[in-house]
Amino acid sequence: MKTLEKAIIRDIAKGIEVNLYSQENRQKYAAL
To answer: Torsion over CA of 12, 13, 17 and 20, rounded to 10 degrees?
Structure first.
């Protein structure tokens, strides 16, 4: 695999993590 492809996959994975994290936080705030 090319280095660029690895970097793109890593960025996408990071974006998904951030997305899940913010969704969890929204649910916590909604529950308050």
So the answer is: 70
Residue type, 2: K
**Mapping DSSP to helix (H, G, I), strand (E, B) and coil, where does residue 2 land?**
coil
Query: Please, how many CA atoms are within 13 Å of residue 29, restricted to the half-sphere of its CB?
Result: 6
Q: Which two tokens stand for residue 17?
A: 């993590």
Token pair belonging to 2:
């090319």
Three-class secondary structure of residue 22 per DSSP: helix
pLDDT per residue as tens digits for the range 1-32: 799 999 999 999 999 999 998 999 888 888 87
Predicted structure pTM score: 0.57
